[in-house]
Every structure is written in C-alpha cells, then in structure tokens.
Write a structure and sequence with these properties.
The structure holds two protein chains of two kinds.
Chain A (H helix, E strand, L loop, with lengths): L3 H19 L5 E3 L2 E9 L8 E9 L5 E7 L3 E12 L2 E6 L4 E3 L4 E4 L4 E8 L8 E8 L3 E10 L6 H10 L3
Parallel strand pairs in A: 2-11
Antiparallel strand pairs in A: 1-2, 2-3, 3-8, 3-9, 4-7, 4-10, 5-6, 5-9, 10-11
Chain B lengths: L5 H39 L2 H8 L1 H4 L11 H11 L3 E6 L8 E7 L2 E7 L6 E6 L4 H9 L8 H23 L18 H26 L6 H10 L15 E5 L14 E3 L11 H10 L7 E3 L7 E6 L8 E6 L5 E6 L5 H13 L5 H29 L17 H14 L1 H23 L1 H4 L1
Antiparallel strand pairs in B: 1-2, 1-7, 2-3, 3-4, 5-6, 7-8, 8-9, 9-10
Helix pairs in contact in B: 1-5, 1-6, 1-11, 6-7, 6-13, 7-10, 7-11, 12-13
C-alpha cells in the first residue's frame, strides 16, 4: 500500500512514455544502432533541469554503450537512472554510462533510465525541438532531435487533485 | 537473599519489604520500556549524524563553489519529479546538505531532496520516514498507534517511582559493600544486586531527568500542559498572539516545531489581495533577519496564508519563528526563545537537553552513557530476580507484616498520581492487582511460595 505513494506519479510518467511512443518521429539509424522516439519534457516555470528520453536498439552483434551526451541548449547532459526501493525513490548519475547489448534495446523513459539536461538557459517549450548528441563507445556520435512534449501528461485524476490543493 | 544485615533488617524490615515490593512491581512493568527507550533514545540523540550517513544518497551533496540555485528553481525541480503542491522548503543546514522540499500529493506528503547547486532531484520518500523519524516514533511508541503513547507516559511515571524506591533500598544500612562498590562474583546474586544498586545510584538522576523532560511529549499530561501553556501568557508573551489575526492552521502541521509552539496558530496575512512575494523574496528576508541555517519555510496554502520561517537549532537562544505577509513580505510575527514566558523557556531547555542538543557533543555522550547504564540496570535487575526467584513462582518480594507501613508510601504515590493522572490511574490498577494476588495467595499458599 505504502509503496504506491510514489508509484502513482511514476506510473503517470510511464503512461506518458507509452503515449509518446505512439506519436514518435521517424527512427534514426546510425551504424548498427536505431534511435527512436527522442523527446524531452517541457520545463515548468523556474525549473532548472529537464528529463530526456529515447529508445536505443542495437541491431549489431557487438555490445555498445551510451557513454555521454551533450546539447547546445544545456550546460551539461548526464545519463541517469531512477530506482525505487520500497518507498524510497533515488536518482543517480550512471558514471559508466548505459550498456546497449547486442541484439537488444534500451528504453530511456520516465521512471527508469533517462537523460538529464542541466543548466538550461532557455526553458524547453512545448512544440519546439531540442538538438542533442549522444556519444556511444563503439558507434560514436549521433546527433538527433528531441521533441519537446508537455510535462506531466499523467492520468487526468492525478493532476486534477494536485491542482485542487493549490489555491493559487 | 537480601544484602541487608539481620540487625538492620529488623529495624526497617516491614517498610523495606513494602518498598521492595513496589520497586519490584514498577520494575516488572517498566523494564521492557526502559530497554526500548534507551536503545531508541541513544540512537536518536545522534539523529543528524545517523540520518546523514544512512540517507547520504538523498541528504548529502558534493560541495560546489558555484552559487546555489534560487529556492523557486529547486522547488520547481522537485515538483517536476514529484507532482503535487509544495508545502515546505527546508534550507540546507550546511554546504554539503541537500534541500528538502515537502510536496503534498494525493497519496500523502513526500520529502523530495534536491541538489541546491545544480537543481537535480536526488530522490524522494514519504515525509517523516527517514530512519531517525522511524526511531523517533518508536521512542514515543507513536509507531504502534495513539493509545500506546499512554504506555510510555505511564512508564515514565513508574520509572520515577523506581528511582525513588531504588535509592531508598540502596541507602546504606551498615553493610560492608554495595554502596559504591560491587561485591562477589557474577555467579552470586549479591554481585548483581550491587551492580544494580551502584549503577542505579549514578544513573538515577538521569532517569528522573529524562522521564520529567520527556513528559511534555506525552499524550495526556503533555497534551494538557501544552494546551495550558499556550493559552497562558506564562508560556507566551502577552500581545504577540492576541493582537495578530490567526488562521485555523496549526504550526505543527507545517513544520516540526518546538514543543511549546505546537499549539501556536499561524497568523494570517491581514489583507488578501495584490501580488504575492515569491519564495525567493521570503528566503532573502529570512536570511536578512538572520535565521539560523537549516530553517524550514512553510509555504502559504491559501490567500490569507503566510510564509512561516522556523528553526530549532542546538543553540536554544536561536530558536526562531517568523511569519511573513505573503503580499507585503513584512514580518507579521518574529519570536525567539527570549520571547517565551518562563514556563516556555524552562520546558524548551528541558526538551533541548533531553534531545542532546544543549551542551553539544558532551550532551550526546552523557545521554549515550546514561542509556547504556539504564540497559545495564534492566539486565542486572532481571538477573537478580532470576537468581532470587523461587522455582515455579513469580517471586514477588514478601508482604510486610504490618500493613500500616503502606500508608506513607500510598500518600507519596497519591500526590504523584494527582500530578500525573495517567500514572496515578495505573498505580491504582497495580494496587488492585497486588491485593487480588495477596488474596489469591492466602487461599492457595502454593502461589505465594
């Protein structure tokens, strides 16, 4: 019962991921890698950081690894992991990057692995596109566009409650 | 048997037995509580150290040279990760601390930890569920529900009784040892009796102090005194509360407050309307007013709400509560320890010392030693009873021959029982049980053994 407290927003975020998948841009191919559905969340006023998501598929026979990322729109882009242990949610940077196994795929999505855009001078606004470059151990660098999507596309009930509480 | 020489025993025999009997009952009742209170208390005294270590992933950040981000940016980041309404912002107490943003969600309150230097959310957990918050609720027995807190109140009262009767039993009556030294070997009961008596002599003061200073948190006595002190200028300065408009919100619902402010109500921003100041403005004001680092800011939740800065640092004199008008930004109320009435000051000092804050590390170490000694008392008591106890019976100390000696004892218990009603009620129950036990033993001598 208690563990559902955090699960709600996370599930909401997961739901957003599913929605996003149905309306994705064309996948981008680079060597053995297929990158699809890159998007970042629109930033609420004052927010200093933003999450980025993308699905990485490795069609080749060699394991690869996402080791770094950067964007002209952000001072830094980090590779992060979100974990839940009981009621405790933790976010941490993955110091060794994120493996993309041969013949497999990794989904960077809310509630799991994701990119964090730091020191964003001009907040990401819904509808625009943010350019970013992903750096892989073997496949090298891939530039790809991230669509900016509305934040918190959670199930209606959840958001409704939250806004009821705030009187301003 | 008892360590008292025969000559002395004849003189004080009856009274000695009566006191011993009640010391035994009180001990039986309180022993498990003394152990849990000591263990959880000893941990809680080091709450900051332990929580900062156990929850380092959430509570600690790498110190950076760069400026901290604006509070509004940190709150926005927290809300982006955990959607809801921000109700409290807690300033990092030191350069290596994270910011804590309390977010009200439809599933309850969450504590969201943010790196103040880069705005990254470090993680989140249900509010007040850190290891030390759990230990705190175990210490107060709140963990097990509301009524269990009454048990702690009773245990505190009985522990005072234990010290009183214990010192009386310890009082030298011509024996050659067991006053400040321990006789015999662990094999013998006298070793445990002496260990218990000598430890008790030194730790008795701390037991009474901790029981008395812990009482303000208790359900019945604490609740009543809290209510009284706050409705009374003896606890609070006249005018400050009376002349300021009050909202219906209690401070305790926003931040963990000092004990005597628990009932205090937060003033309202007098005239709702206009453009509210931002959290950044409020924090700048609190900094300018010199609030001790690590203060909590309760965020206004309605048009007449206020920004409430509060902080309860180790240094009592820097306890402070400041309420800012959410439109004008001016302080509506600014109170510190110096403004409390004598009762408020006295109670806050007791609480601060009970929590190991008043004398720094020395305070923590003394309380840790006291807690260890209390566990030793409980263990030696149990061993001593085990060694004395006749097989197949409870081993209650024998009843005095002349029952009149109970009168003095009962008078003392009655006075204590009136001051601490819940303790008094439990004493009556115990007295009734004792009488029933005596009746039963008379009918069936085997039970008394």
């Amino acid at each position: 019962m208690k563990s559902r407290i955090l699960a709600a927003p996370m599930l909401g975020a997961l739901f957003l991921g599913l929605l996003a998948a149905s309306a994705s841009a064309d996948p981008l191919s680079h060597g053995d890698l297929l990158l699809s559905d890159g998007y970042v969340r629109a930033m609420p006023p004052n927010a200093p950081v933003a999450g980025g998501y993308v699905t990485l598929a490795n069609k080749g026979s060699q394991d690869d690894r996402l080791v770094a990322a950067r964007s002209p729109r952000a001072g830094a882009v980090q590779i992060h992991e979100m974990t839940m242990k009981g009621d405790v949610m933790k976010m941490r940077e993955l110091p060794d990057g994120l493996p993309v196994p041969a013949g497999g795929s990794v989904e960077l999505k809310p509630g799991g692995y994701h990119l964090m855009f730091l020191r964003v001078a001009e907040p990401f606004a819904e509808g625009e596109t943010v350019e970013a470059t992903l750096v892989f151990e073997k496949a090298g660098e891939v530039a790809l566009p991230f669509a900016v999507r509305a934040m918190h596309a959670a199930p209606a009930g959840h958001q409704g409650h939250a806004s009821d509480h705030s009187g301003h | 048997m008892s360590a008292i020489p025969d000559t002395a025993r004849q003189g004080v025999g009856d009274l000695y037995r009566a006191v011993w009997r009640w010391h035994f009952y009180a001990g039986l009742l309180v022993l498990p509580f003394m152990i849990t209170l000591s263990i959880t208390g000893a941990m809680y005294v080091f709450r900051d150290e332990i929580d900062n270590w156990y929850h380092a992933d959430l509570k600690r950040v790498q110190v950076q040279d760069s400026q901290r981000l604006a509070p509004t940016a940190q709150v926005a980041s927290a809300l982006d990760a955990v959607p809801g309404t921000a109700v409290k912002y807690t300033d990092p107490a030191d350069p290596g601390a994270s910011t804590e943003v309390t977010v009200s969600t439809d599933r309850g309150r969450m504590a969201v930890y943010v790196n103040p230097y880069n705005g990254l959310v470090l993680g989140a957990m249900p509010d007040r569920t850190t290891l030390m918050w759990t230990v705190r609720t175990l210490h107060s027995f709140k963990y097990f529900g509301t009524w269990t807190r009454y048990l702690i109140e009773i245990a505190a009262g009985w522990s005072i009784l234990l010290v009183g009767t214990g010192i009386w039993l310890w009082w030298p009556r011509g024996q050659k040892g067991g006053i400040v030294s321990v006789r015999g070997r662990p094999r013998r009961r006298v070793f445990w009796r002496d260990l218990h008596a000598v430890t008790g002599l030194f730790v008795g003061f701390f037991i009474v102090f901790l029981a008395v200073t812990g009482m303000p948190w208790s359900g019945v006595w604490g609740g009543k005194v809290n209510e009284w002190a706050n409705g009374n200028n003896f606890g609070y300065p006249n005018g400050v509360r009376v002349n300021v408009p009050m909202s219906q919100q209690k401070l305790d619902e926003i931040a963990k407050t000092s004990w005597s402010l628990e009932q205090a109500q937060i003033p309202e921003s007098p005239a709702p309307g206009g453009t509210p100041i931002t959290l950044d403005d409020a924090v700048a004001t609190f900094d300018r007013l010199g609030l001790h680092r690590g203060y909590a800011v309760g965020l206004p939740q309605k048009p007449e709400g206020v920004f409430s800065g509060s902080v309860y640092p180790d240094d009592l004199s820097r306890q402070r509560v400041v309420h800012l008008d959410q439109y004008g930004g001016q302080p509506l109320l600014d109170m510190g320890y110096a403004d409390y009435g004598p009762l408020g000051k006295w109670l806050e000092w007791g609480i601060n010392t009970h929590m190991g804050q008043t004398f720094g590390v020395l305070n923590q170490i003394i309380l840790l030693a006291a807690c260890a000694a209390i566990v030793l008392l409980a263990v030696s008591a149990a061993v001593m009873w085990w060694k004395r106890r006749p097989s197949g019976s409870l081993g209650v100390p024998p009843l005095p021959q002349d029952r009149r000696v109970f009168r003095g004892l009962i008078a003392i218990l009655a006075v204590g029982g009136v001051i601490f009603p819940l303790v008094g009620a439990s004493l009556l129950v115990m007295l009734a049980l004792d009488m029933a036990y005596v009746r039963l033993s008379r009918r069936n001598p085997a039970v008394a053994a």
